[in-house]
Amino acid sequence: MKTLYLLRHGETLFNALHKIQGWCDSPLTKKGIQQAKQAKEWFEKQHICFDHAYSSTSERCCDTLEIITSLPYQRCKGLKENNYGLLEGEHDYLAENDPQKCATYYLQFGGESNETLKERMVKTLTDIMEKEDHHSVLAVSHGGACFNFLRAWQDPTEELKKGFGNCCIFIYEYENHCFYLKDIIRQEES
């Protein structure tokens, strides 16, 4: 059985300022750096070693990954967040948070649909996990990307109610081209 550790990046300046952040980027905050260090400590306490690591091309994901491991990693555009079009960088009160309504909401602003994001994440992570020598993989991505990946494999409603905070870790088992959610490790908010 192969294992994927899919992790959301640490808190960023745009997260703290309540700005919409998809393909645009902002740096990790001090809190975001601390969250990444806490994730690293969790992996170390569990004695988890990765044989490969991947990151979204966004700086916030690369920086998070580099705090967690010194393993060389590959940057993947397929792990990027949803493209929110003209709403990128705008205040998050303009965002649509209802899962059904936001399925196509961002298309009107030149962004992408949840279905496109889900298909991109599934293809990227399946291609990664199909590699013969990939047994314990770390992939750092984004909140919306992680949510849409989860909904490809199960109803995400109950997990969504618990939230997908920064640096939460989605643990998936991978077998026969399918991902099975084993657990979600959430950090305590301080």
Structural description of this entry:
The protein is α/β, with parallel strands linked by helices and 190 residues long. The chain has one domain (2-185): Phosphoglycerate mutase-like (Rossmann fold, 3-Layer(aba) Sandwich), CATH 3.40.50. Helix content is 34%, strand content 19%. The protein has helices spanning 13-16, 30-45, 59-68, 102-105, 114-129, 143-151, 157-162; strands spanning 2-8, 52-56, 74-76, 136-141, 169-175, 178-185. It has a six-stranded mixed sheet, sandwiched between helices. A hairpin with a 2-residue loop joins strand 5 and strand 6 (178-185). The protein starts with a strand and ends in a 5-residue tail after the last strand. The mean pLDDT is 96. Substrate binds at residues 8-15, 60, 81-84. This is Histidine phosphatase family protein. One of its GO terms (molecular function) is phosphatase activity.
Write the layout of secondary structure elements.
Layout: E1 2-8, H1 13-16, H2 30-45, E2 52-56, H3 59-68, E3 74-76, H4 102-105, H5 114-129, E4 136-141, H6 143-151, H7 157-162, E5 169-175, E6 178-185
Parallel strand pairs: 1-4, 2-3, 2-4
Antiparallel strand pairs: 1-5, 5-6
Helix pairs in contact: 2-3, 5-6
